[in-house]
Amino acid sequence: MQTHQYDAVIVGAGGAGLMAALYASRGVKVAVISKLYPTRSHTGAAQGGIGAALGNLEEDHPEWHAFDTVKGGDYLSDQDAALRLAEEAVSAVIELEHLGLPFDRTPDGRISQRRFGGHTSGFGGQPVRRACHAADRTGHMILQTLYQQCIKNDVMFFDEYHVIDLIRTANGVAGVVAVNIDDGELHVFHSKAVLFATGGWGRVWEITSNALTLTGDGTALTYRRGVPMQDMEFFQFHPTGLYPMGILITEAVRGEGGVLLNDRGERFMERYAPSIKDLASRDVVARAIYLEVREGRGIKGKRYVHLDVTPETVNRYLAEAGESRRITAEYVEEKLPDILDFTRTYLGVDPVKEPMPVQPTAHYGMGGIPTDLEGRVIMDAQRTPLPGLYAAGECACVSVHGANRLGTNSLTDLIVFGRAAGKHMVEYCANTGLESLPDDAGHEAEAGLEHIRQSSGSRKPYQIRSEMQQVMMDHVSVFRTAEGIQDALDKVRTLKDQWQNDLSIDDRGKRFNSDLLEAWELGCMLDIAEVTAVSALAREESRGAHSREDFPKRDDEKWMVHTLAYPTNDGGVRLNHDKKVDMTLAEKDPRFKPKERVY
Amino acid sequence: MRAILRIRRFNPEQDSKPYWGEYTLEDIQPTDRVLDLLNRVKWEQDGTLVYRRSCAHGICGSDGMRINGVNRLACKVLAKGLTDGDGDAHVQIEPMLGMKVLKDLIVDMEPFFAHYRAVLPYFVNDTPAPADGRERLQSPEDRAVFDDTTKCILCACCTTSCPSFWANGEYVGPAAIVQAHRFIFDSRDVAADKRLEVLAEPDGVWRCRTIFNCTNACPRDIEITRAIGEVKLATRRGAEKQREAMRKEHAK
Q: pTM value?
């Protein structure tokens, strides 16, 4: 087992990891470890925009952005985090521009902005243009720009190294264990600080916008080392995944004027969100689509609706709304080129001429590894940090998104809090020595891999995986009941047992053994599925993305608290609900106090 | 429908040379992607088969490979486009050419990324940022000049379909030139001359013989051969003049 020594190790090379790396590399010796080449990270799939109250096209303020974030999160967002996000978004986006990011431009040369779901002016008023964008490949541009700047700064990359364990010590952390995917050798990375930026876990569900690689590795492996998972019951279903595969169709389609229509050709969002209609927040729109389908108004009775951005339809509704703006086919081509490419490639549907078929798709984990505003991982309701451990991006939970994330806030989150974590790591490393490496560092991870490599049971990884995805989709998705969640939990626990005791893989070799590593990832997803179900079963209310049909009301008396889930010694899950939601803003301004969400 | 796949296999731990593996899949959908077919072979029939993949919808660039003789992303080719008279999909899959095969469809990407790094693929501007703390201004016209090349996902489909690159792996290749183009023609960047120096070297742009394989292979529809031509012109007349000419061209 080879050993490497760095001040700081960053696991994951998406937007959060690279932003943290860029900052950390200015002060300390950093290694970035990724199971992919960095440019393959899923940040590159983000389409529509990054939210920041630049006010380039109309009046906007960080306070309005913070309000929308808190309301969008159904009042479970920590308000100190929402304020930090909204305030720092402005300088963070300007910084990206200074790093070379090619944003689209306004006629006077400023960063262009457009509408997005839940973005309003004046604390919940009319839609406002806050999403800064580069066509419909904003995430691609962010990922490329940050990777380019890391190359310029000579950041050390370990590409295609798969991190499989965190080395804990009595006081904190001492590094990570990784497999070099190429030759299968294990490497120990000995460091003062470790940052996880490993992204999401949408692959726990059957229909998802997420990459095949989004298996929640960082969140699961820190959990196994005693770090809680926070708010895992809140998982966002994006309203518009391409039917039937779930590929993301950005909210920017609706931001540019696109409308959702049911089988009768009705613009049904008028009934669910009379004020901002198709631009309501994602949980609201996803539920509306489910209800339309359930009531038999899916297109041709199937499980999808139409998203229509043809100029004819858009202009008709713009005229009806009294807006002077009109769009053309050329405009749609220019603003949404990738969306057009997806639908033409996969379905033969041309969105400038006909509507796109869409369905809700598993998209984003609001929960994850709990952190404070500096990206430090915290261990309990008292927010006690674990020295040297950091997390940022989707795998982390600040918690800024609360019960439902607003569109464009994922990119804002990873830039703002990736930057904060990178800065703090430099400070931390300057004042801290290396913890000595435990003698058995890496041994447990190695034994775990060998157990899978030699497995000769009756169940293939894909069988277990697809059964997990199916049951999570059926019972722990947009709408939930105690009975359904319990069914899912029982099933997931059975599958976990099969994974442990009755698995079989084909490849027993060392080199590029993705059979082995996919099976290992499946173990992570099973842990996440279990914690998600346990957390969802306990929360007896409906809030944001967590919609319980047996508890349809939000219960602010009892549930203005975060969920912390810990692993127990006997392989179970222990929940703690002592962590209260931060109400910094509401204490000063009554507009931030929880109230009914109406869009 | 049915899919019949021939996949080039090679495991250096066991095989002295590559061979063809043959697989049949029943009940596939016409809209299945080649990546879906590969996944089914791996998951249901032979877990030892390896290939790179991530996003599965054409924007991460992981699964570039040679499909029926042409470089494509496996997640952007549908089974229904690969049928012949008998209604079955016939799919032949090989690793991309011109790079060392590490196992099955996985090639060594390091030389490719070394060429990428050689052209200074990052924004350079050491002049002070605007005093008001805001963005550097750029007109939509200046932004449009390099829009096409910002779409590159570094999948390597272009470079590994280029005969000039096959003949000489020292040639930086189309992908690296595309990356250089993206910065050379960005009105905010100040390092165009340094990049053009690199590209004027013998292994730079002039190894391009305008064969158009790169443009045909690009899964993002980037007009790569045109971009290379614009870089060639810039090595002669300077980036500034070439940018001006392109701006006029765009304005038409």
A: 0.97
